[in-house]
Amino acid sequence: MAYLEMERLGKRFGTTEVLRDVTLSLDKGQILTVIGPSGEGKTTFLRCLNLLETPDTGIVRLNGELLYDASAIDREAQRRVHRAFGFVFQAFHLFPQYTVLENVMLAPTIVKREPKEPLKARSMALLEKVGLAQLWNRYPITLSGGQQQRAAIARALAMEPEVLCFDEPTSALDPELTQEVLKVIRLLKDEGRTMIVVTHEMAFARDASDVILFLKNNTIGEIGTPDELFGAPKTEALKRFLLQAD
C-alpha cells in the first residue's frame, strides 16, 4: 500500500479547468518533483492537495487513512490535512514582526500549544539543521532570500508534518542562494522525509527525485522515474519542454 495516494484530483475556476484527473501514489520517504510549463496547474495541484484551494474532485489518503474527499470537505478534513502537510511558499511568507526563532515557534505554540522551553530547544535544533542557528534573533528583513527560505523550511518542519511540500522554493533566488536551499532539501531527503517539490530546477529534479510528474494541459502528461522522463520521454510535449529548460 502506498503512503500517499491521490485519485482524480481536479479544480475549476468558473468554466476554466485548471487541474484535471491527477491520480498518483507515493511511498514513504520518496520525493516527487512536479515540472512543466507555466500555467499548466503545478501550483494549483499543490494548493489543492493542501486544501489551500478547495478541489472540485478528488480523494486523498495518507497511510491508508482518508484525509479528504472533495465531495464532502469539512473542518475536520481541513484539520487532518493541515496536520499532515507542511508548506513552503515561493515568497517565504515569514512574519516580519517576529524574529527567526519566533517565526519557527509560532504555529506549534498556537496550534499545538506546545510548552515554550521544549519547543524553543526543538526550534533551535531545526535552525541548526538548516544552517541558521546563529541568526535565531534576527528579523526576516535582515536576511538574504536564501536565509529567509531556509527559515521558512524550519518553520514548516516545526509542525512535524508527514509530507513537506515546496512551491517553487528557489524561483525568487539567484543561483548561489538557490544551491543553499536545494542543499537543505537534499538533506531532508537523506533523512527519509516524504516531499513534493514544484520546481523549475531540472538538475535537481533529475538528481533528487524518486518520481517526476510532468503536467501538461492541466493534467498528467507523463509520470515516472528520472531515468524514464529524462532518458526516454514518451511525448513530444515533454521532449520540447526539456529542450527549452536546458
Which properties best describe this structure?
246 residues; alpha/beta; Rossmann fold
Neighbour order of strands in the largest sheet = 6-7-8-3-9-10
Helical residue percent? 25-40%
Write the CATH fold name.
Answer: Rossmann fold
Which CATH class?
Alpha Beta
Task: Write down the overall geometry.
Answer: globular
Quaternary status:
single chain
Domains (count)? 1
Number of helices: 9
In the predicted model, the low-confidence regions spanning at least 5 consecutive residues are none
Radius of gyration: 18 Å
Explain what you see:
It is a single chain. The chain is an alpha/beta fold and 246 residues long. It has a single domain (4-95, 162-245), classed as Rossmann fold. It is 39% helix and 26% strand. It is built from nine helices and ten strands. The chain has helices at residues 42-49, 75-84, 100-111, 116-129, 145-158, 175-190, 202-208, 226-231, 236-245; strands at 4-13, 16-26, 31-35, 57-62, 65-69, 85-88, 163-167, 194-198, 211-216, 219-224. The strands form two sheets. Strands 6-7-8-3-9-10 form a six-stranded mixed β-sheet, with helices on both faces. A four-stranded antiparallel β-sheet has the order 2-1-4-5, covered by helices on one side. A hairpin with a 2-residue loop joins strand 4 (57-62) and strand 5. Helix 3 crosses helix 4, helix 3 runs parallel beside helix 5 (145-158) and helix 5 packs parallel to helix 6. The longest helix has 16 residues, at 175-190. The mean pLDDT is 94.
